Amino acid sequence: MELELQRTPISLLHAALGARMVGFGGWLMPVQYQGIVQEHRAVRTAAGLFDISHMGEVWVQGVRAEQFLNSVLTNDVSLLSPGQGQYTLMLNAEGGVIDDLLVYKVEPSRFLLVVNASMIEEDVCWLHSSATEGVEIENQSSQWAGFALQGPRSAGIASRLLLPGMGLPARNEIVRLSFPGSEVWLARTGYTGEDGFEWFCRAEAAAFWWEELLKSGVQDGLVPCGLGARDTLRLEMGFPLNGSDLSPQRSPLQAGLGAFVKFGKGDFVGRAALENEKARGIPFRLCGLVMRGKTPPPRAHYGVFHEGLQIGETTSGSLSPSLQCGIAMAYLPTALANPGTEVEINVRGSHFPAVVSKRPMYRPSAPPLSP
Amino acid sequence: MNIPNDLLYASTHEWLRNEAGLATVGITDHAQAELTDVVYVELPKPGAKVSAGQQVCVVESVKAASDIYSPASGIIEAVNERLSDDPGLINTDPHGSGWIFQLRLSADADLSGLKTPAQYAEQLGQH
Fold first, then answer.
1. What is the ipTM of this complex?
2. Mutation to test the A interface, candidates B39, B58, B66, B83, most A Cβ within 10 Å
3. Between B42, B58, B63, which is nearest A36 by CB?
4. Which whole number is the average pLDDT over A262-280?
5. Which SS3 state, helix, strand or coil, does residue B45 take?
């Protein structure tokens, strides 16, 4: 029996825009409208708009909310001022990744967690299982829609929608915009490496804001973008995708996300396992791989070889529209994880050369500026 | 969707143009639209003996790799080397310069199982 796919509030608008719809993490989502490469380029040079309504919005509040979040997430929410957010991870006791997410401190004791679509239920269960008195957890995922506006022209496009007195948030910050009859949370973040925003509104206002955003961006070349371009854009940046590059069997240290693990704070789920791993030596590292010359694009689960021996397999892979060559990520033994190491990727029985590369594999020409 | 009248079609979305036993093969306009941006073509080996329905090469888009099947039996006589440098020809001219290989049909090659343009249109739900 096939599970029925969930639909975002603007599912019908995607169809009208000519989207090709696919199942992703239990959701029916647009994979592309005009073409992945075209949409990818629009985000790198102008702007793109993604429906991210499938992602989860979980509110955590209460007098002990901060303490609680610091005990179940790896980053340190006490470092945040109200209006600021951070990338963080939820681990199991073995130090493996349950989910990666963004947490925003919207008020001193009220937080918004934006989590992966396929992990909403699991994350919420996990949070409930360790919640204490003085912590309220409210999963509002079905009540919210979200749109990612990404690309160097995003700020101009977003600012056209603001009313007098409103301002755009700075990088990693979130602001509440009180439009007449419509509450919007606007965060300056994204999954593409470009400047951009995530625009969260109530589900019933989703169609209105999707159309407003598209209209506001016409003069800047804004195009609707699907999950296909979202994947190639994040992969060029070496941003991991949970379920592919992150898993309960891999620690954030192996994934190169140590900067988002704060050992200076108190205890948190997975801490002991990570300290143990650190003490023993981190055995594998998630590496960027850039293929040399004209090769078939790598995909997930292709073997990676070094001097004739298999040393790992790709967790993600694609053609990079910006670099015009194949790029991938793979966990490789630490000794072979240094940038410059020559490896080979097995595509249908033939080996093609690739080189271990620093992440990101591609750098946006105009890095996002903090206003 | 463009379905030229002078071609035969496989249900797996390859087209075939038979000219006195030398058949040119590519993928249909529908197939290229489904695949989207073609970024790599793994061409078959000239001289290879293939049978009808046999997987002979791979066309890759950004998102996925798709097997291409020979619509008839024969020997691969030529491959479209231009696709190595410009795989996007499959998207821009699927029935013309985006052809993939030429097949010297075997003596017993049977084209009767292939679809006429009308039958292929029906398969695609275009009446």
1. 0.86
2. B39
3. B63
4. 97
5. coil
pLDDT tens figures, A27-83: 999 999 999 999 999 999 999 999 999 999 999 999 999 999 999 999 999 999 999
| Token code pair at residue B94 | 């699927």
| Opening angle at CA B36, ends B35 and B41, nearest 5 | 65
How many residue contacts between A and B have a Cβ separation below 8 Å? 40
CA angle A194, A24, A254 (to 5 degrees): 60
- Residues of B with Cβ-Cβ distance to A319 under 8 angstroms: 39-40, 60, 62
Of B37, B60, B65, the CB nearest to A35: B37
Chain A CB within 8 Å of residue B39 CB: yes
Flag if B62 and A294 touch (Cβ within 8 Å). no
Q: How far is CA A193 from CA A13, A334, B64, in A?
A: 27, 26, 24
- The model's pTM is 0.94
Alpha-carbon span B65 to B35, nearest angstrom:
9
Helix A65-72 / helix A120-130 crossing angle, nearest 10 deg = 120
Instruction: With CB atoms and an 8 Å threshold, state whether B84 touches A294.
Output: yes
